[in-house]
Amino acid sequence: MWRDSAVQMAGIYKGRLSSQADYNHSADILNAIILKGEKFGIFGPNGAGKTTLISMMCGILQPTSGEVMYCIDGERLNARSALQYIGYVPQDFAFYPELTAGQNLTYFGKMYGLPTGVLNEQIDCLLEKLGLFHVKNKKVMTFSGGMKRRMNLAIGILNEPEILFLDEPTVGVDVQSKHAIIQLLEELNKNGTSILYTSHHLKEAEDFCNRIALIDKGQIIGLGTLESLTAQHRAANLEELLIGLT
């Protein structure tokens, strides 16, 4: 099972535990396995803990207890060892608005350690796919909200990650930007990238995800395919399922 997985969470918890007894009985202890090549969605109401969970899963936030491990080329790695294989697209914009699109991507590409020739090709390729090539030399502060979302995604996938984490990648974007983002994510997944993301767009998630986790108050309250969960709880769709369980 381990070699079929991309990410494994074992007993992770974020918060204060006063004793081992509290740990053993806490409802907030999270265990889950994300499979290789999977498109895995995390959903829940505002404040449910979606951002905290995905931040722990990608190694940005250290859990109070438990561990998150990654399977890369058959090896079991911790977050630090797997860093070069992981991509992360946060909900907040993670770029320098006073720099151009090209300058931002060059800066982050060098942080990844990409060779100059490879980096330049990757920059032009991503900007073209995301419909941003024509603004390569314009400052990002002049971009629309949707263009900034696409820019955020480009930075997060510069290193062609094996595992990609995204926190609300399509929030507040126009239809054109949403289409460009989802289309590129589908392409990445077809090429072998395992994708984990949070979103408020439930219909989008129904069409995109292989499996989903529903969380509320830091606890996983549902885990499986949309079909299995809706059948189990007699819900017509993801929205009805989420309302019924939370």
Instruction: Say which CATH homologous superfamily is assigned.
Output: P-loop containing nucleotide triphosphate hydrolases
> What share of the residues does DSSP label as strand, in percent?
15-25%
Distance between the termini: 31 Å
Largest sheet: 6 strands, mixed
Q: Can you tell me the residue ranges where pLDDT is under 50 for at least 5 consecutive residues?
A: 16-28
The strand order across the widest sheet is 6-7-8-3-9-10
Count of individual domains: 1
CATH architecture: 3-Layer(aba) Sandwich
**Tally the helices: what do you get?**
10
Element order: H for helix, E for strand: EHEEHEEHEHHHEHEHEEHH
User: What does the overall shape look like?
Assistant: globular
Write down the CATH class: Alpha Beta
CATH T-level fold name: Rossmann fold
Q: How many strands?
A: 10
Helix content: 25-40%
Rg on CA atoms, Å: 18 Å
Summarize the structure.
It comes from Ancylostoma ceylanicum. This protein is α/β, with parallel strands linked by helices and 246 residues long.
